[in-house]
Amino acid sequence: MVLRHLFHMSQVVAAAFLFSCAATTQTSVANRQYAVGTGPSDKLQLPTPFATPSVRNTSKVIGWPKGRMPTAAPGFAVSLFAENLDNPRQAYVLPNGNVLVVEATREWPVSGVCADALALPFAAGSFDFVVASQVLHHFSLEDGLRLVREMHRVARRRVIIADLRRSWVAVAGLWLVSFPLRFHKVSRHDGVVSILRGFEESELRDLVRQATGIVPDVKRRIGWRVTASWDPQQDGRRVTGDGR
Predict the structure, then answer these.
(1) Which of 122, 129, 128 minimizes the C-alpha distance to 150?
(2) What is residue 17's predicted lDDT score, i.e. its pLDDT?
(3) Fold designation for 133-230
(4) 156 — phi, psi (to 5°)?
(5) How far apart are CA 150 and CA 116, in angstroms?
(6) CA distance 18 to 97
């Protein structure tokens, strides 16, 4: 009887001790002070916008000394193609052999215009080059035609469209790599839908021709991409925003 009584008493003491520890833990968690930007969602304190300086780690560009060139392999030569470029990022070769170079701006903050892509607030021929990258497949056919017409209208020298090339191989590849890369299911679904909404070369060519009356230069690119480019004044005509 005594042993049984002592056993029950020990259970009561142990339960009381555990309850006390749990209550102490909950109190300490509730009263804990967290640093700014850390802690659970209900205690999270975010810094005010622009309270800390932006981190910029720009690469230092070291040019070649005047008159010197890299040493090429036997049978090859290195020559100067262009100079005095400001932060070049990407080159694009036009069908006529001209080369366009995309440069990054040094202005900060970068200025921009938020507007309706189907009714751009710019006069005809406002820009030398107009580019849409991975955008067109998000539009319906009717809106896509309007978008292409607007790009054509505001361009002066070149219009370039780069978009996804529809391929079941690309769909299967994306689906397979999405699991080891731990894609969210929404991202996985969005990727598949985007590829299936992409274009074959003939489809993109016909869309531009229908919108502008010009047959563009369409090419396949690596990574299941397709590009279309054209001179908006190659036939001496210009299509306005309403298709006239």
Answers:
(1) 122
(2) 45
(3) Rossmann fold (3.40.50)
(4) -110, -35
(5) 10
(6) 79
